[in-house]
Amino acid sequence: MINVNGKLFEVPLNLQEASLLMFLRDFVGLTGTKYGCGAGLCGACTVHLDGEAITSCQYLVSDVMDRRITTIEGLADTVVTGDLHPLQKAWVEFSVPQCGYCQAGQIMAAAALLNNIPKPTSEDIRTGMAGNLCRCGTYKRIQSAILNASEEISDER
Amino acid sequence: MKDNKSPSMSISRRNFLLRTGWIAGGVTVLTSCGSIIPPLPSLNDPTYEDALSWIQMRADGQVIFYAPRMEMGQGVTVGLCQIIAEELNLPQSAIDYISPNTDQTPPFKMTVGSEGIAKYFEPVSRGAASLKEVLRERLQNSTQYKLHTIKEEEGGFSLPDGQMVSYADLIGDTSLVLNSEMLATAESNADKRKRAGPKAIGESWKDPQLKAIVTGQKTYSRDIAISGLRYGHIIHKPTFHATLDTVDIGSAMEMKGIVAVVPSKENDFVGIVAENPYVLDEAVNAVSVKWAYQDDLGARAISDILDVERIRSANSFEHEILSEGDLNTGRSSSVRSIEARYDTSFSAHAAMEPRAATVWVKEERVEVWSAGQDPFFTQKQVAAAIGRNVEDIIVYTHRLGGGFGGRVRCQASEEAAILSVATGHPVRVQWDRTAEFQNNYFQPAFSHYISAGVTEEGKIGFWEHDFVSSPILTGAVPDYIAWIIDSVKADEGTARGCVSPYQIMNQRIRYSDIRTSIPAGAWRGLGAAPNGFAIECMMDELAVEAGADPLEFRLNNLSASETKIRGVLEAVAEMAKWRDSKSDNSKRGISCAVYKGETAVAIVADIEIDHKTKKIVVKRIWCAQDCGLVINPDQVEAQVEGNVVWGCNMALKEKMQFTDGMVNADNFDGFEILRHDEMPDIQVKLIQSDGTPPTAVGEAAFAPVAPAITNAIFAATGRRLRKLPITYEQL
Question: Which of helix, strand or coil describes residue B436?
């Protein structure tokens, strides 16, 4: 069984050796997590494994049995502040996305970063997010949105 | 959408056929042999009549806007909605934007060239205004009031007696779709309009799709899942020009879940179709394909071909783009002169979403779910690939996960169509990252030679510019017709931006189109960035020769009438405090360019050489841009930010090389692009001169970025590095 966003999924035998990314997209039907490079180089497929960011294209389903996966679709449910996670709110507030394709991965990476460093410096954000590529060039806005969200989260605490 | 009837019915069919796109720059001469020309992209500019079918009003007064531009993050759709809102005095919530399928609008031009606002502002605003005037006339006809006494209000009109009438009150039971007959009178009233209701143009409206994007709910073409779907994988030819020889399908068909193995000799691929996506990898390994290889060139051979000095020594430039005054006169009037060669690299689009499509070929209809910059080109390509009529094909469009010129074709659509024909099922084809790098076209390398001089007064005495590269706009035409096209005229895409904005009495610009074995095609800004790089580096070198400050040298060589470019240079100087005696300009470079003759941009780059990490670091970029009327300032700034990142990539990162018809880098480890920790701070200032129409934005700020960075590297190190990309090791 794999716990995806709080729901348990039985894994058919022929999926054991499939990538976690493919399992999420084609079996569970959660397509918010994106394929970008298939090699762990771009971060588009970032999800949380027990709260830590991983690139789901680099994990097999069998690697994550009986563990807890959170995807972009389940991120807001990890907080109690309404229908959007503070990062998602900040993403809208700063109009971060251009094409938008990499943004689910960016947001998931940022959420894990804030779990580990609740009050990151600009430098923490720059290095912490370096694994997530954006070809449209939205980095400046992403970094501003993360800073802003971190302040909002710590205000709420 | 309930009403799927094609709005094109009201406008003459013939008119549309005329404008369906055969008449391209160099291709005009060839229309007599139409049958040998492959399908062409949609090339015709929008007209006012087109706009009539884009903007409709529902019975409840809600505007339905079938956006004639594909959204790929450039923000064009929200901008066009603002233009409609401005004309119709509506709030954002009263306009629903729809990315139309190919049944819902007549064909529109491929989404390229930063034209989304620049070329669509006028037809969209007139279309919206016409809708309003038709409604005003209806109101006049149902009352005794004179037309001009009916005043505009938010969402409708007011009558002289104070009564408010909403648009919905005037629509009737069915949606209002304009046709040309209704317009005869409406048009003449259009100039009487006066703004009422909330302001829309100039506001930073948000893309209504943001929430769906940040929650993972937005559907991209890779995300399509329909019932009965089968999963395709394409074994592509391993090199650009290999052809399919033989296929041994091995045990593939015995594998559980494999539906078909489909070799396509015509298209040089082998497709595999399965009931589920999990068995595809194994089946691919079981199939062995023999390819016939053509001679393909390595990196060295290609750079030997695209070598400006080779063409110079043969003195055989194909096209003279500009010739003014006399170079010898200019030389003798110059007190100092220099010559230099500048080179830029091949590059890839590397959009984050590798292309994908789902196609279901049925007897009566062929349904295509894909994302491309030209859905009507996809429609034609699919029709040609499976031998169906274009009208049989419907293409459902999606937001693109990045385009940058690389998605004018969506080859996965044709591939999925072929596999759907072979199996009778709807089939999905998703390219992986390797396929995305290997199987598309590229930005060609450019090789420039510029010789120039300065007079005693610090003016440019002469300017001799020769360059070579490959045709871009006509890059995809087959070899058997390419030679005619190339001899007719210089490729306007490759030549874009090769004429500088400076006042130069004696100058000559020559160019040769040279096709190599590397597929070449559109990439952000086409020739603008490589050409701007050469020009603006030489300007910096000339400033040194003249003993002048690089900013003042540029200003001194612009004619008084070049107010836009002067304006942005002055503005960026102000932002960066360039002239402030306390400012340290020792690690800064400046540059400017005019994109497509309309949008002026100036950049100052501030860099640092980090000897510890062995890196060239771009610390800050200041950008001033004059793109005329700004519809949505935040979206324009976002485009500038994107262009700055592209400029940093071009200066310091991107380089695609090839060996024997294969890309040397097929993922982001070999083809590196800027990452979060390399991002400069960016300050943007938008200047809009009163009364100027909106001009190009999406690619405009790209060209001056790389030269500003290389000029800063010179300021910091005294080294002129003239071949991009520049690495620390070269310093």
Answer: helix
Task: Answer whether residue B627 shows pLDDT above 70.
Answer: yes
Option in B213, B349, B669 nearest A97 (CB): B213
What was the pLDDT predicted at B22?
Answer: 26
What is the count of structural domains for chain A? 2
Contact residues, chain A, for B279 at CB < 8 Å? 14
Q: Determine, for residues B219 and A26 on separate chains, whether the beta-carbon distance falls below 8 Å.
A: no
For B:223-242, CB contacts with A below 8 A are 223, 225
Q: What gap in Å lies between CA B419 and CA B404, rounded to an integer?
A: 28
How far A19 CA lies from chain B's nearest CA (Å)?
9
Give the per-residue pLDDT at B174: 76
Report the C-alpha gap between B494 and B496 in whole angstroms.
6
Concatenated DSSP letters of B641-672 = HHHHHHHHHHHHT----EETTEES--STTTS-
Q: Which value, to the nearest 10 degrees, does the dihedral of the CA atoms of residues B245, B250, B254, B255 take?
A: -90
Q: CATH number of the domain that A47 lies in? A: 3.10.20.30
**A134 and A147 in a common domain:** yes
Q: Looking at the complex, report in whole angstroms how far the Cα of residue A64 sits from the nearest Cα belonging to chain B.
A: 17
Q: A residues 41-100 near B, CB within 8 Å?
A: 41-42, 44, 71-73, 75-76, 84, 88, 91-92, 95-100
Same domain, residue pair A84 and A46: no
Q: Are residues B49 and B170 in the same domain?
A: yes
Contact B293, B517 (CB under 8 A): no
B430 touches A: beta carbon within 8 Å = yes
Residues of chain A numbered 92-151 and touching chain B (CB < 8 Å): 92, 95-104, 107, 125-127, 129-143
What's the one-letter identity of residue B118? A
* A chain contacts of residue B215, beta-carbon cutoff 8 Å: 32, 72-73, 75-76, 84, 88
Q: Do A98 and B218 touch (CB under 8 A)?
A: no
Is residue B139 within 8 A of residue B170, CB to CB? The reply is yes
> By residue range, what is the domain housing residue B607?
306-347+442-730
Determine the pLDDT at residue B400: 98
Cα-Cα-Cα-Cα torsion B430, B436, B440, B441, nearest 10 degrees, comes to 150
ipTM rounded to 2 decimals: 0.98
Residue B273 belongs to a domain: yes
Place of tokens 């005003």: B136
Over residues B385-434, the pLDDT tens digits come to 999 999 999 999 999 999 999 999 999 999 999 999 999 999 999 999 99
Cβ-contact B55, B133 below 8 angstroms: no
B424 occurs within a structural domain:
yes
Q: Determine, yes or no, domain membership for B619.
A: yes
The whole-number average pLDDT for the span B225-232 is: 96
Residues 333-362 of B with CB under 8 A from A: 349-354
Contact A97 B635 (CB under 8 A): no
Measured distance CA(B685)–CA(B705) in Å, rounded: 15
Q: Which domain holds residue A105?
A: 76-156
Contacting residues for B572 by C-beta, under 8 A, at least 6 apart:
B578, B590, B592, B602, B603, B604, B622, B623, B624, B685
Q: Residue B31's pLDDT band (boundaries 50, 70, 90)?
A: very low
Cross-chain CB nearest to A137 (options B220, B634, B642): B642
How far apart CA B586 and CA B593 sit, in angstroms, is 22
Within 13 Å, how many C-alpha atoms sit on residue B388's CB side? 25
How far does B400 lie from chain A, in Å, by closest CA?
6
What pLDDT is attached to residue B173? Answer: 77
CATH number where A89 lies: 1.10.150.120
